[in-house]
Design a protein that fits this description.
alpha+beta; about 45% helix; binds zinc ion
């Protein structure tokens, strides 16, 4: 998006897991395709340090599938929209996991 540079402050990003806004320099880059090296034409998601640590305890494959699913369901979403959809979907799946037990 052009012309949305803010007021000259530091660029901020939204943690997809908890929806917090934080300085980009404090965030962990999260590539839902698991391939950080082909950056062309891609947008990265971001996680705050807390969530990044939490999510690393979860099976990564499942998380990437989740993020990809969410992205497809919310095309052209803003970071905030994506974060909300991601949290909702993650909560749904957590519930489904518990039902299976
Ligand atoms: Zn977070």
């Amino acid at each position: 998006m052009f012309g949305s540079r803010g007021d000259g402050g530091e660029e901020t990003v939204v943690c997809i897991a908890c929806g917090d806004r934080l300085p980009r320099s404090d965030a962990r880059e999260y590539d839902k395709q698991g391939d950080r090296w082909s950056r062309h034409g891609k947008e990265f998601e971001y996680l705050c340090v807390d969530c990044h640590d939490d999510l690393c305890h979860q099976p990564r494959d499942e998380l990437e599938q989740l993020a990809t699913d969410v992205e497809q369901s919310v095309e052209n979403a803003t970071s905030e929209t994506f974060a909300r959809a991601f949290q909702r979907e993650a909560a749904d799946r957590a519930d489904a996991d518990q039902d299976r037990r």
